[in-house]
Recover the amino acids of this structure.
């Protein structure tokens, strides 16, 4: 996952701003990390470069 | 049928498609022997198919939304239910390096497959993420064009899906979808079947209902660009003449 795309992402559950914690990065790509929503406190993991942004309401 | 159960059934079926190397749409069946042929029959040109990785073509669509979308260099495109990525890669070729294409799909196996294809083929302007089309992880007013190919019929909440599409589109942005609808209403016993739901037909709305749902979500100039009634030999008799694939354009 590339960092620049973050500016258009939001929390799928409450549409709040997401903050990103990077655990592992390779050649500008985020491999492992976590998106967190400051508003509803939902967390969304990035595993093997793929962010899981499934709404936690569903 | 509950929304969660429908989503689970759909996810399970499409996860299997993603894992299998050869797959075909069980509803229209036509790709069983030749996926490329099926893709051409629903509107992809041979040149377009040559321009993208073969593994991104699963034979599960019912149209070619990128052909309708008249994509321009630099545009940001979102594909709802991107699957193995066929339309994302086609769109990526059209919007060029300054553009960007995002594929959202709730089936993790599909996203993994698409992501690997993007990596293996060095696509720099595509992104895939696991997400639901009813709850898009995308900010308001950020997308130029939304495309979707034979996916929204699978959604248990189509109004919510179109509302989300409307929300993320920029003002003046456009929606270009290929989807299945029904001519008149389907028998209840088909609607009740889980398998039929994930085989597109039970979830498909009646044609006018489908267009009204798009309008209700806020879109204007909602227009059917083309339509094609399905008639397959192996099709369930109860469905003959009742399933139509439509290509719809609408604006925010």
């Amino acid at each position: 996952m590339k960092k620049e795309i973050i500016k258009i992402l939001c929390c799928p559950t409450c549409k709040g701003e997401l903050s990103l914690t990077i655990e592992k990065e390779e050649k500008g790509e985020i491999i492992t990390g976590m998106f967190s929503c400051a508003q509803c406190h939902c967390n969304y993991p990035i595993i093997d470069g793929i962010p899981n942004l499934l709404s936690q309401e569903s | 049928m509950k929304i969660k159960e429908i989503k689970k059934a759909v996810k399970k079926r499409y996860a299997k498609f993603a894992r299998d190397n050869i797959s075909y749409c069980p509803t229209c069946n036509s790709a069983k022997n030749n996926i490329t042929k099926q893709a051409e029959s629903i509107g992809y040109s041979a040149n377009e198919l040559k321009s993208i990785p073969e593994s991104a073509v699963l034979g599960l669509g019912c149209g070619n939304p990128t052909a309708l979308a008249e994509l321009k260099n630099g545009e940001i495109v979102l594909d709802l239910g991107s699957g193995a990525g066929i339309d994302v890669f086609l769109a990526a070729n059209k919007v060029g390096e300054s553009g960007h294409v995002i594929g959202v799909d709730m089936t993790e196996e599909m996203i993994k497959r698409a992501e690997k294809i993007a990596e293996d083929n060095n696509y720099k302007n595509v992104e895939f993420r696991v997400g639901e089309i009813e709850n898009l992880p995308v900010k308001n007013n950020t997308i130029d064009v939304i495309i979707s190919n034979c996916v929204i019929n699978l959604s248990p909440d189509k109004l919510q899906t179109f509302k989300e599409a409307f929300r993320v589109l920029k003002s003046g942005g456009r929606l270009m979808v290929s989807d299945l609808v029904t001519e008149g209403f389907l028998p209840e016993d088909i609607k009740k079947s889980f398998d039929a739901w994930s085989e597109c037909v039970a979830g498909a709305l009646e044609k006018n209902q489908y267009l009204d749902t798009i309008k209700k979500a806020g879109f204007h100039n909602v227009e059917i660009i083309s339509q094609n009634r399905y008639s397959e030999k192996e099709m369930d008799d109860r469905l003959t003449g009742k399933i139509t694939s439509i290509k719809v354009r609408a604006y925010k």
